Predict the 3D structure of the following.
Amino acid sequence: MIKKINLVGTVNLIFYFFLLFAFLGIALLELASFVLLCTFLIYLYNVKTKIDLNKYILFFIFFYFFIFIQSLFSNYSDLKYTGLGYIRFIIFNVILIYFLINSVIKQNKNYLNILLLMFLVIIFDSIFQFFVGYNIFGIEIYKNRISSFFGDDLILGSFMIKAFPILAWFLIYNNFDFKKNFLKISTFFGFYFFVILISGERTAIFLTIIIVFTSIIFISKLRNVLILSTFLFLFFSTLISNFNIGQKTDPLNRIFFKTFYQITNYNLNHPKLKDYKLSDRLKNVEINNVNLFSKDHQGHYELAINIFKNNIFFGNGIRGFKSYCRDINYDSDIGMCSVHPHNTLLQILSELGLFGLVFYLVAALYFLYWFFYCIINKKKIRSNHYEMLMLISLGIIIAYLPIVPSGDFYNGWISYLNYYTIAVFYYSIKMIKTKAH
């Protein structure tokens, strides 16, 4: 029989290095999830215990059966069983929660240091690629975007911002000494945010602003660290925007000028305007037909709303947006086709309808309730527990924020990251409840 201590070690390894697996790709995430399931079954057999089917778990079980049954009645024959595989994310989530609540997962500063080292490597590699044109493995800049080890998957910024609340949660969970390591950790996060900037991912940059600003206000342990790291970030940003120090891409051009053009249809970088100051260029702006983020995004949203109007209660089914576009050869009279609507809320509406929206709203209200509960009852909650819950709440908010573009709701890589974050969120709530009693 496998010793319990080995099972505990395996669980802790998967929990701490989950971000490493996510960094290395979906295949390792699937493997880690499978190993976790096997470990869980053996552990249950050894300790002779059962899982408590509480309201939280039942909510996700009902959500799974909703999307599975809905997929069975899909109008598209190749999508009738697409909902079946979604259960693995919920199982992964429930197992993590079980191990967290039952204190199987412990503090481990060695694992934390390895995790920090991993991000140092990503930061170094990204900046190296930014100034040299290729990373340490010879992967060249793709489409004028810094992507580091991700190559042609332009998700460096998304990964970094999604990982930030989890990484910060780990620091507090392991009682990291922010005062003793103030300059080191501030510099680390200064470069961390700089990497998000040079990735050129505009949504990731916007979410970084939200999460850093909110953390400075509500999370005292990180306040001074984030203030200094923000100044460092602004210094680096100003440096590359005003001087050519060898950088191979111009992320600020994409972030500001391209975004302005996509929203307003007015090109501030037009050759005829190149001799004018930016302030003078803005004076002559004539804005017509303003787009929501871009013409493409606007088109995706219009099509998603149209699909929803035709299937108000149940939507067009899982991956119904993509299937609809496939049926019309990606040539829609209304809006613009793609593989998904690039917005979580609109994807739920167009593919799951009003019934799917109910699940989204219930979950959102639950998350927001605990977010504001923490703020209102801060003095009654132990400092570490308060800050851990606030951090991971921010992670969930940026994952499901309905006002910004997003990835595919059913994407495996995104789903594992989200359900991992939700598991940590639930555990953070249990810590507060336990201390309250």
About this structure: The chain has a mean pLDDT of 90.
